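tool_call: predict_structure(chain=1)
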Amino acid sequence: MSINSTNILTDTFGRKHSYLRISLTEKCNLRCTYCMPAEGIKLSPQQHLMSADEIFDIANTFVKLGVKKIRLTGGEPLVRKDFPLIIEKLSSLPVEIAITTNGVLIERFLPLLKKHNIQTITISLDSLQKEKFLKITRRDEFDRVWRTIQLLIAENIKVKLNIVLIKGFNDNEIIDFINLTKDQNLIVRFIEFMPFDGNQWNKDKLVSHKEIIDKVDYEYPLELQRGKDAPNDTSRNYSIKGFKGSFAIISSVTNPFCDTCNRIRITADGKLKNCLFSQHEISLLTPLRNKQSILPFIEKSLLKKHATRGGMDTPEKLENPELHSQNRSMTAIGG
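tool_result:
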């Protein structure tokens, strides 16, 4: 099968997949409640995880197939000891590289990231209050993360803040986050709480797209502006008139963007997931190590992709905890 002549990144619904998210590790130095069960997760044995060379080989194949952007995730990608080598290898590919991190370790890697022209960094930050940060992450690292955010802005690196909203916990901070964009060129992104194994999801904890907009519209009447969404954007973009930055809402639950999805994921143990919500996984690492072509396995995975949320296409299915437990926890999937 010739790479140049195939169109295997197009699924049965005509969606072309040009965005690859690669999880570098299942490990994390935080313990966020919506991402990881309190008892942690059983980690894959080291020999089952992709090496730096294997990550590059798989990524290189996807780039030849048409992938234009690669995002490195985890767990926490920066806890991986060979992270500098991985960045060096992937930066040789003709593709945009981005990173999602919790921000705890980013300062020590800043020279490396600048050297390899990493221009966008997404940081998960679910509260602006130290005590809430400690409660949700189970670690006392707020000051370090906040200092890092300010450093990145000063270095003219594009910063996106990801906030998972949970009703009764941090939904009273929506306006506080948006106010950060008044004088700073930040992008604040509110993410609806999504169901995964072990995160105790239920719809009563959900803060919907409509609830967020209603809060903002009440605080800033006649000043809320709709932004322009990029093709295949997962977020709906907004700003407040006169503010330097902007905000967005990722409404995977109440207003999914599945019809324009162009994303696929590789877990740290080398399995391809065609959807964040899907329980279906297919190993690319096994055939790679067996000196087989991984192309048929990629094609098989894309052909199995559902139209909506891994097959959870009704409220009843989405609210069924048995279906949540058939997927991995978020830290094992790759954020």
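agent: The two ends are 32 Å apart (CA to CA). Proceeding to next step.
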